[in-house]
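=== RUN LOG ===
request id: a7f3
mode: sequence -> structure
chains: 1
length: 464
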Amino acid sequence: MSAVDGRGSLTRSIVLVTSTVAAVAVLLTGLFAWRTIRTNAEAQERDQLSRQAEVLARTPPLASWMLDRQQRIAGPEDIKLAIVRPSGEIDGPAAVAVDAASREALLAGDSVSTTARLDDDEVLLEGAPTLVGGGLVLTQPMRAVDQATNRMRGSLVLPLILGLTGAALAGALLARRLARPLVTAARTAHRLSEGARGVTVPAEGPAEVAELAGALNTLDTALTHSENRQRDFLLSVSHEIRTPLTTARGYAEALADEVITGEEVPEAGRILGTEIERLEHFVGDLLALARLEADDFRLDMVEVDLDALVAETATAWSARCARHEVDFRVERPERPVLITTDGFRVRQLLDGLAENALRVTPAGQPVVLALRADGPGALLEVRDGGPGLTDDDIEVAFVRGALTDRYRGVRPVGSGLGLAIAHRLAGRLGGTITARGGAPEGGAWFTVRLPPYPGAPYTPLTDS
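=== RESULT ===
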């Protein structure tokens, strides 16, 4: 089904809009011209009649001959003549059209241009003073103006039709130019929504359309990158799950086939339990990350003594580090460091960082858990004597799976979720977490800063 169901196409819309605008413009122009033509036609007729009156006024013999002819021959002539004598007497077929005002103006030596009535018809009246005094008047029926108007209006119809046709053609060309890249962009967007990748839109047309094409090309690149990351993450997850599943399945089959019996059964059970615990831990990490990214978990904000919390954490991790022959150290002020936070989530954050440190720290090297008051807030550190982090590692340290993909087969790695979870936890607690290399112990150095209470800004006193 088309994405534009119930709507006209862009091309038709543009053609309709441009044609409508052009039609309105042409019609308004035509209406103005239609009304102006009448005025122009009357002006032209008056000008011609005035010129004739001036010529006759300057040639008395011609005027007398014309007056005599019109008096002797009564005919349907359009132009009729009247002569105003210096005495004020008016002679000629057009005498009744000359009113007192026109006569006085002519006797005073002024020209006359007006409208009058003659034989129940409206006529144009033009008068010019003669050289011997008085004046000469010519009249012409108004129907001559109407005839000229009709001729001029008739000649206007074809240009109007041509204007409307040209506007429609121009609108069609404009619509084609604008709609083609937009249609291409829309098709590309549909292909992207259907899963196609690596498609590009040529940046053509107006600037806004070219910008849309660039945005779609950027979206295609971003989608490709995101999906590649998701694919890599799924591959990493599959790899992490396969190992404990394979081990558990092997021991389960061995127990079912009674390959393992007697005194070997408890050891097999222990191994199965360990592998299942690994699977539970991995699934728990996935669920924790999903809930953290959705901000879908509760925070119980109460006053917490971080010194006591760090001491409790150190007790648990000193034993684990001892089993791996790793030197565990704790640095704490041994006095209350009170802030308002969620102690359970802080412990979860420290456990994640400690587990990450223990995984990469070889036997004989240290793992350090440190706490310091930092102004009104607190600063927590986890440092290790492992291989450390490069500048490139630091840039992606909290991107899920990034370091796991980079160092798989090179050094011990986990699921790739721990540092991502730590980053989300620190943010939800209102704090920050940073990573760097060059710890005093030679390895990685993670620093967590927590505010004195949720949403409280503060300026750290230390540069660590």
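=== NOTES ===
Residues 1-6 have pLDDT under 50 and may be disordered.
The longest strand covers residues 121-129.
=== END ===
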